[in-house]
Amino acid sequence: MQKKYYIANLLMETDPTLKLHPHKIDNTLKKALSFYDKDIYLFDYERCLIIDPYKDYEDILLVVEFANLQLLELQILDRFLDFQLNKAEDDIRNVYYKRTILGTRIKKKLANLFWLRYDMIFIWENLENVSKIIGDFFLSEIYNLIRNVFRLDEWAESIRNRRKILDDLYSTAKSDIYSDWII
Questions:
Q1: pLDDT digits (tens, 9 = 90+) for 3-23
Q2: CA nearest 141: which of 28, 34, 44?
Q3: For the chain, which end, N or C, has fewer CB atoms within 10 Å of the first or last residue's CB respectively?
Q4: Could you state, in order of their start, the residue ranges of all structural domains in the chain?
C-alpha cells in the first residue's frame, strides 16, 4: 500500500505528507500498464510516469507523443469550430433579420466547410486506425489507454457534431437565399 501511495502522489504531483483517499489512489493507478514484472507505465491527462529498469521505453514515448499530437489537432479544430460557429451566428442573423443578400458569401463558407471536412477525414483516419498502424500489441494497449485518458473519441465526436451543425446552418441559409431569389 505504501508503494501505491507514493506512486500516486508522484504522478499527481501532490504533497506526499497529505494523506490521499484510497479511492483517489486506486483511480490514479487504474490507468497503468505493465509488460514485465518490474515495469509500470502510468498515464494522466497532463503527465506520465514510466518505471522501467530495462530502459526500453523509447517506443512508448513515441506513442505518447503521437497521442498528444492528436489531442492538439483536435483542440485546434475545436477552437476553429468555435470561431466559425460565432461567425455563423452573425451570418445567419444577417440573412434572416437584416435580409441582406449574402449568396456568394454563404457559398464561400460552404466551400470552406467542404475543405474542412476533407482535412478532417485524414485526422479521423489517423484517430480510428492508429491501432492497426502501430502493429505491436502492447504499444496498441498503451495508445488505447492514453486515448481514453485524453478522451480523444469524445473530442472527435463533439467536433463531428459541430461541423455538421455548421454545414446544416449554411446549407439551410443557402437554400433560403436561393428560394427567395426564385420567388
A1: 787 888 888 888 878 888 888
A2: 34
A3: C
A4: 2-51, 58-182
